[in-house]
Amino acid sequence: MRTKEQYYELILQNRKLASDQEVMKCTCPNTLCDWHGKCQECVALHRYHNDHIPVCSQPVIDDKLRALVATAEMPAIQKKTECQLSIDIMLKKETKAPVNNPCLPLRSADL
Hints:
Blueprint: H1 4-18, H2 21-24, H3 39-49, H4 58-71, H5 82-93
């Protein structure tokens, strides 16, 4: 457990990091998303819908799960996310994005 002094130092360090634009830059590879760059809104929507983890957080979770799976001597299989599958289908068929897909931006024709 941290001491009060360690916790205070951590808070100061986090405040400094939060003021750095490079640290706060959106790292999500899904640049077609309406919420790309609006991380607070994105995370809030993912928490509300409770359907999957934001794409930007998935590599962190994957790494931790792979380590856990390795300790259980089980295979870890990488699968595409719902967003990746939707984008693949859209690009393959060259059709407009479905209106109900939260991972893709709405176009004015969809409204």
